[in-house]
From TrEMBL, chain A:
Key word Endoplasmic reticulum present: yes
Family matches, as InterPro entries: NO_sig/Golgi_transp_ligand-bd, TRAPP_component, TRAPPC6/Trs33
Annotated coiled-coil segments of the chain: none
Keyword entries, A-Z: Endoplasmic reticulum, Golgi apparatus, Neurogenesis
GO terms classed as biological process: endoplasmic reticulum to Golgi vesicle-mediated transport; nervous system development
Compartments, as annotated in UniProt: Endoplasmic reticulum; Golgi apparatus, cis-Golgi network
Gene: TRAPPC6B_1
Protein name: Trafficking protein particle complex subunit 6B
Membrane-spanning segments: none
Biological source species: Lygus hesperus (Western plant bug)
Family: Belongs to the TRAPP small subunits family. BET3 subfamily.
Taxon lineage: Eukaryota, Metazoa, Ecdysozoa, Arthropoda, Hexapoda
GO cellular component: cis-Golgi network; endoplasmic reticulum; trans-Golgi network; TRAPP complex
Superkingdom of this protein's organism: Eukaryota
Pfam families the UniProt entry points to: TRAPP
TrEMBL record, chain B:
Keywords: Endoplasmic reticulum, ER-Golgi transport, Golgi apparatus, Transport
Subunit organization: Part of the multisubunit transport protein particle (TRAPP) complex. The heterodimer TRAPPC6B-TRAPPC3 interacts with TRAPPC1 likely providing a core for TRAPP complex formation.
Compartments it resides in: Endoplasmic reticulum; Golgi apparatus, cis-Golgi network
Family: Belongs to the TRAPP small subunits family. BET5 subfamily.
PANTHER family reported for this sequence: TRAFFICKING PROTEIN PARTICLE COMPLEX SUBUNIT, TRAFFICKING PROTEIN PARTICLE COMPLEX SUBUNIT 1
GO BP field: endoplasmic reticulum to Golgi vesicle-mediated transport
InterPro entries assigned: Longin-like_dom_sf (IPR011012), TRAPPC (IPR007233)
SMART domains xrefs: Sybindin
Gene giving rise to this polypeptide: Trappc1_2
Protein name (Swiss-Prot/TrEMBL): Trafficking protein particle complex subunit
Listed GO CC annotations: endoplasmic reticulum; Golgi apparatus; TRAPP complex
High-level lineage: Eukaryota, Metazoa, Ecdysozoa, Arthropoda, Hexapoda
Length: 167, 145
């Protein structure tokens, strides 16, 4: 089983690499190279992957009670089947904001153990943000997922569910 | 019992990484020159050993020893070369070197998407993990006779 874990890691690394190198290096008005223009492509890859994955993972499940139940499923079963470990910490304000914390996020655990290469962090979490958004979208929750990294390899995903959309 | 220093060379002979723990005598030349000298010597020993050997070689050159230190050499099938200098009493250094390769280099350089394989190693995490492994090993002690 070790082989397919590394396969995902390497494929993801190449995906990031490919998306980055394919993007025309546009100059921003400030004159700096625009590094962030390609994140939406990666995020979209994640979205469609998550959307399809959740279809498969939930085939033996009954309906979820409520939104929190759904998020808990994402944190444990969904996360474990992809990253081989559950989310370390889940917080919510019970008003549609959820914070998922992973202390050793797998795509970054080999990169750095601190702040070195922190500028590369957005590239490696964009796919996963999309993955979360796609999974939730297919479960009927439209959300906005953002991620934050202060020190690798820990990262936090913020899921925001607009309240007026809930039944 | 002591571990002196470690060199890692790539297939083409460029120095990817150098670190020293207990090195009391410096060579008196720049690091690049020293690395070139080291690689040249290894290259010569390798061809010498394979030419002079009366039997078919399986592993080739493994180590040499002076009265003060021992140099251990590990080459992977992909051409990556690890050179570890220890004192002459250290045993099972080969296992340690294989660990450096499989548990540190492969894990934190090969699997690290930010590192390019043909460039000198800059990853702090790699250095940290290497140091950890060396200091855990039974031959590492701070003092040298």
């Amino acid at each position: 089983m070790v082989a397919d874990e590394i396969l995902l890691e390497l494929l993801h690394a190449e995906l990031v690499n490919y998306v980055c190198s394919n993007e025309p290096k546009e100059k921003e008005p400030s004159g700096q190279l625009n590094k962030h223009c390609n994140l939406s492509t990666l995020e979209y890859f994640g979205f469609s992957t998550g959307y399809k994955l959740i279809e498969r993972f939930t085939k033996d499940w009954s309906r979820f009670k409520d939104e929190l139940d759904t998020i808990k499923f994402i944190c444990t079963d969904f996360w474990t089947s992809i990253y081989k470990k559950p989310i370390d910490n889940l917080r919510t304000n019970h008003q549609g904001v959820y914070v998922l914390q992973d202390r050793a996020f797998r795509f970054m655990s080999k990169i750095s153990n601190g702040t070195q290469h922190l500028d590369a962090a957005p590239l490696y979490i964009a796919f996963t943000s999309g993955l979360l958004r796609g999974a939730l979208a297919n479960l009927g929750i439209n959300s906005i997922v953002t991620a934050e990294v202060q020190s690798m390899p820990a990262c936090k995903f913020h899921i925001q569910v607009p309240r007026n959309q809930m039944p | 019992m002591a571990i002196h220093n470690l060199y890692i060379f790539d297939r083409n002979g460029s120095l990817l990484f150098y670190h020293e723990w207990n090195r009391l005598k410096q060579s008196g030349m720049s690091r690049e020159e020293e690395a070139k000298l080291m690689y040249g010597m290894l290259f010569s020993i390798k061809s010498f050993v394979s030419k002079i050997s009366p039997l078919d070689l399986k592993k080739g050159f493994l180590s040499y020893k002076t009265n003060k230190y021992a140099l251990h050499y590990l080459e992977t099938p992909t051409g990556l070369k690890f050179v570890l200098n220890t004192d002459i009493h250290a045993s099972e250094v080969r296992e340690l070197m294989k660990k450096i390769y499989s548990q540190v280099y492969v894990e934190y350089i090969v699997k690290n998407p930010v590192c390019r394989l043909d460039e000198p190693i800059k990853s702090e995490l790699f250095k940290e993990k290497l140091d950890e492994l060396i200091k855990q090993s039974s031959y590492y002690t701070a003092k040298i006779a």
